[in-house]
Each structure stands twice: as structure tokens, then as C-alpha cells.
Amino acid sequence: MKVTVEADGGSRGNPGPAGYGAVVFDADSGDVLAERKEGVGHTTNNVAEYKGLIAGLTAARDLGADTVAVRMDSKLVIEQMSGRWQVKHPAMQPLNAEAKRLAAGFDRITYEWIPRERNKHADRLANEAMDEQAGIESKPAAKPASVGTSAAKASSPGWTGAQGTPTRFLLLRHGQTPMTVERRYSGRGNVSLSELGEQQAAAAAERLAKVPDIAAVVASPLTRTVQTGQAVADAVGVELTTLDGLIETDFGAWEGLTFREAVERDPELHRSWLSDTSVAPPGGESFDVVHRRVRRGRDDLISKYGGSTIVVVSHVTPIKSLLRMALDAGPSLLYRLHLDTASLSIAEFYPDGNASVRLVNDTSHLG
User: Fold this and answer.
1) Which of 63, 223, 239, 290 is deepest in the core (most CB within 10 A)?
2) Element (DSSP H or E) covering residue 62
3) 21 and 91 in a common domain
4) What's the rounded mean pLDDT across residues 92-99?
5) 25 part of a folded domain
6) pLDDT tens-digit series, residues 107-119
7) 248 is catalytic
């Protein structure tokens, strides 16, 4: 017997009042064979997601299924169950083990990440469970569609006209380093965080741990961004990955110099560089080159995590470039926008080509 299991979990507060929903469909007809939902007290979104999966697999086992296709909008659960990500968070380890024990009882099981808009049935059940746990009467639900139909439509456009589920980029600049304190050009130099920078990374991690449904934490491969990103990944409970496209500008011969020292070394070139994004430092790369590189990186991330929320830990120029893309702004934005260390900005990119910026240079978590 072949079935499809869709599961979801939620936490209102993360951690907060939580619940899960799971539904089992006949793989051929799309008929609903079983539904499961339950409030699970006060916990995190990731715990609720795992409990939803366990409930769905248990229902599939009870139905006598031998082949199971699991579909969830939790990138964390899908990647960990597929064995591609490690399970580091102590709260996740026993849940992962229980889910794998159930999975071992089937002849064949596959895991597929789907956008949230295609997981509406399980999401509805999870919200009903949280409402019932809170003593709230849920609104009557519309009749669910069968698996494989086109019933999961793009979200209605707002005043911007954007349609579909956006990929949400939580853009975090790395914490302070000795180079930022001294206001020196810091591009490809592999400098570590200062003591304050480590504290800033921890504060940012604490804030982002409260954001539900973070599918990935991706950082530039330089030490300062990896340190910042690792703090966030540990707090969120996902595996840190790196992407070369997020690396800072190569400042070439100006690396490690102060602004004044760079002006004294190359006065004419530096003056041109400040007004023309096609001009590169000696032996370095121009902002235009960085912009194209970052755009390719953004496209790769959207291709991999489309419709999800991801944390991108990077540097001043790549983050400004991503904000520039979202605003559809010209290169002058690079010279007019200030980003503090460990600041948070948010940009959303929609599948129809639209985008929006929801936050810029927020440092409230550092107060």
C-alpha cells in the first residue's frame, strides 16, 4: 500500500503554545485516509514539526502502508531525516530517533520538501490543534483537496501585486572585528570576531531563535561570518552551510588600510572608486562584479530554498547588494546605506519577480 504523509507543526512564540497536524493520503487516488492533530504544550516549532511527522508515520503504519512519501515544509526535518544534516540540538535527537525507528518499518520511504502553500491541509490541522489547546473555537475548514491537484494556489496579491510565497532572506551582518573597530578595509582578510563581536553574534542568535520555520543558515566562508553564522545555526537547530557568493568585496591592495591610507596611496583611483561602481581597487574587484556575484548566489539560494525563510550571514557590500536587488534600486544605494555590525535586515523575493524590503539595519537585539 502506497501512501503520502504530509505533516506540519507550529509554535505561537517559538517557544510557545504548540501543536501539530498530519494527514495520510492514498498515493494513487489522493483520498484522505487518516488525520492526526494534537496540542503539545509549550515548546518550539521544530519539536512540533517532528511530532507531526511521528504522528503521520504512526498513522501510516497503522493503515498497513509499505511505501511512504513524506512531504513537509520543514527544511530542517526533511534534511535531517534524509541524513544530509546532523541532528545537534538535544531536543531534536530523541524525536529524530523515534521518527527513524518508525521509518525503518516501511519497505520504502522518501522525503520531499514542499513550500508552505502546498502543505495547507497539515498546517490547518496544526492550527486547529493549537486553537483547541488554547480553548479557541476554530473556524470551519474548507474541504481539503487531494494530493497532486492544483488546489494549492498562489497567495492573493497585496497592493504591490506580488503573488506566490516569497523566499524570505534574514540578512545578518557579522559581529564586530578588530578591523571594524579601527575602520580598516576588511574584505577577504580572514579576521576573527572581537569579544564584543562574539557577544553580538550571541544576541543575534537569541533573537533569530524565536523566528519560526527557519529552513537554513547560510554564511560567507570567511571566519567572522562563519563564527556569527554558527552561533545562529546552533540556536536555531540547523546545519550551517557556506556560499562563496556571499563573500565580501576583494579590496586588493587596500585590504587592511584605513580610508585615509587608501586615499594617500591612490588618490585619483580612490576618488573614482567612490563614485563609480565599475571601478576596482588595485588588484581587487569592483562593486559591479560583487553585485553580479551576489545575484548568482541569491538565485542559487532561491532555487534551493524557494518559499522558505533563511538566514544569510554576510558582509556590508553583499547585504547592500541584496537590498538593492529587492528595492530595484541603482548603485548609489551602496554609498547611501549604513549597516552596523550584527544588524538585521529583511528582504523577500517572490516567484513572480517582485520583491519587498521589510527591515533595514535593525540592532534592537544588541541593546
Assistant:
1) 290
2) helix 45-62
3) yes
4) 94
5) yes
6) 999 999 998 889 9
7) yes
Using left for φ > 0, alpha for ψ between -120 and 50, and beta otherwise, residue 163 falls in: beta
79 is catalytic: no
Answer yes or no: is pLDDT of 269 > 60: yes
Catalytically annotated residue among 6, 49, 128, 248: 248
Backbone angles phi, psi at 346, to 5 degrees: -135, 125
Q: Which three cell numbers stand for residue 344?
A: 538585521
- 71 shares its domain with 215: no
- Give me the catalytic one of 35, 38, 89, 174: 174
Q: Return all residues near 259 (Cβ < 8 A) that are at least 6 apart.
A: 183, 185
DSSP string covering 223-286: HHHHHHHHHHHHHHTS-EEE-GGGPPP--GGGTT-BHHHHHHHSHHHHHHHTT-TT---TTS--
Residues in the chain: 367
Nearest to 216 by CA among 104, 92, 355, 77: 77
For 33-55, b where at least 16 C-beta lie within 10 A, e where not — what string?
bbbbbbbbeebbbbbbbbbbbbb
Band of pLDDT at residue 154, cut at 50, 70 and 90: very low
Residues 6 or more apart whose CB falls under 8 angstroms from that of 336 comprise none
**Domain stops at, among 133, 157, 189:** 133
Average pLDDT estimate for 295-320? 94
Domain that holds residue 65: 2-133
The set of cell numbers assigned to 201 is 553574534
Q: How many domains does the chain have?
A: 2
Contact 22, 37 (CB under 8 A): yes
Identify which of 222, 215, 217 has the alpha carbon closest to the alpha carbon of residue 204: 217
